[in-house]
Amino acid sequence: VQLVESGGGSVQAGGSLRLSCAASGYPYSSYCRGWFRQVPGKDREGVAAIVHHTVTTYAYSVKGRFTISKANAKNTLYLQMNSLKPEETAMYYCAATEDWGRATMGTERYGYWGQGTQVTVSS
Predict the structure, then answer these.
(1) C-beta atoms surrounding 15 within 10 Å
(2) Which of 21, 22, 28, 116 is most buried (CB neighbours < 10 A)?
(3) Residue 103, Cβ density class (10 Å: 0-12 exposed, 13-18 middle, ≥19 buried)
(4) Rounded to whole angstroms, how far apart are CA atoms 99 and 79?
(5) Checking DSSP bridges between strand 66-71 and strand 9-12, what pairing results, if any?
């Protein structure tokens, strides 16, 4: 399984970015996949997750501003991020599970991880 993120970059506060995560060798199109972020010295935190194509969950801090979605034909995961804040500067990772039960942001449930894409939000 290979997960490759793209779409990171630098943006001013209040701006938007759309992250993509292309999966290869991952046959579980409806299983739980998610986005996480991490800054140096801190634990990786869950941002959003999706299962069964439409069931989603979000971290409280991003609700209403971020949207997770999938393009099933392309086996690609997306994260639309609007109204970005400087404190959301981090490395963003996509990840995948072999779990179809629920949308979860517990890192221990994820066995596959991408290399990450940097998001920098300036004030």
Answers:
(1) 14
(2) 21
(3) buried
(4) 20
(5) unpaired
